[in-house]
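Subject: mismatched residue count in predicted assembly?

I count 542 residues in my input, but I want to confirm that the predicted structure covers every chain. Input:
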Amino acid sequence: MKARKDEFPILTSQRLVYLDTAASSLTPKRVIEKMNEYYGEYPVNVHRGVYALSHRATEQYTNARQTIADFIGAAFEEVVFTRGASSALNLVALTYGAQHLNSGDEVIVSELEHHSHVLPWQQIAKKTGAKLIYVPLAKDGRITVEAFKSVLTDKTKIVALTHVSNVMGYVTPLEEIIPLAHEKGAIVSVDAAQSAPHMPLDVKQLDADFLAFSGHKMCGPTGIGVLYGKRALLEGLEPLEYGGDMNDNVEKDGGTWKDTPYKFETGTPPIAEALGLAEAIHYLSSIGFDTVRAHEHALFKRALAGLRTIPDITVYNPEADTGIVNFNIDGVHPHDAVSFFDEDHVALRAGHHCAQLLIKWLAVPATLRASFYVYNDERDVDTFLDVVRRARDFFKEIGF
Amino acid sequence: MHQLENLYRQIIMDHYKHPRNKGLKDDPTYQTRRIKNPSCGDDVTIQSKVVNGIVKDVRHDGSGCSICCSSASVLSQRMKDETVDDALALVDDYLTMIINKDKKLNEALDDALAYQGVRDFPARVKCATIAWKAFADTLKKG
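Triage response: the counts match. Full output below for your records.
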């Protein structure tokens, strides 16, 4: 595919090689315009006003949820809007986890998890007396089916795993892991923040029980994310927050709640953001998720081949399945390195990528991460490689 | 690339490669403060020993990028034998130098003047300042 640079205002207004999509993607013009349409033409609340403008806003908001449901193969009622993947994953732990875990139960997690998919489970485990069990990672840092089997027991009640590692770019073999978990009666929570933007996704085919992703990593706005949950599971959960719009009836001594998804969404929702996310999904679908994935992986391969010709470079994930390359210039702290890239208008991530457990597993202080998306092309990769080469020469020359 | 070359001048590289006063003391007469920057992994601990209102020793340890580690070393050398008031004033002047371009430089900062280049790299301000902030905290504790 041809890279879509013209469609992203930030790329036409300044010199920028943007390689930090795994943290947050750039926003295409049509998504910005869709959100402006809301604020310019029908900037009113949903589900409340009995007037034409509010009806239009509500209709747009409802259509947005349907678009998102269709995108992942879910039903309308199974799509809960949240502030982002982090808050969606917290919702699972703080509702399902808090309501179902007992002392001695086991929750399987991994060192590949983003902090938002391990800290909530740690906290709930402490409160309920459940135990966190880590899948031992393979030599290259992958979660394998065999390793998963080695920790799956009759005590396993919840399996919380990432679909794609935000540092290593590995795809977890969930299509094999999920049926195994279900055989034991466990439910599976999937962090799809790094998969939903980059590959075809069907929650029914995957048979995930809960699955979360963010808008801002897939050409959508910040401040919105999605929690998918199987309808029966969502119906059985108590809400986490109470207030306006989520209730059915309020009495002095209590109330009753609306059906899912509304019972989880109190207060005025992120309306423009929901519209923006739906527009982003239309945009990415128009390219095709198979095409997106192939494009990113081709750029990864080109980057990897180039990095192998530069001395003093360690790549931690040469077998990545997606468009993420995780590396270091030997002897140079990533924070030193990243300033060199910054001066050349190449935006990379340096640090531990909200995945300290994995950085500790790698036994390095931090790493550099480049991640590719629809707006990147081979020229971006070549610019990146040129800067890596010059950065390596510079730091070695001054004595690193 | 001139700006980055300026930043990594001799002083910074020297202190990064050969840190002075590195390693902590197991001594209760030292005040200790540890600051971490969770986004990049910088992790600095500073100790100071004050006798009769004079900074007699500064120790540091930790891990991080060259700017962070070297600035702790430069600090530990520069602050020795300053009064607590003068030391805190120097910290203020150092932080001002890094954050505010328009203010006049205090030449008394000496080797620490090497860090004025950090102004051109706003994303690195944290790296250059955590050791100095931790040091100020140790004095305020004591």
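The beta strands of chain B are 30-37, 42-51, 54-63. Marking this ticket as 'not a bug'.
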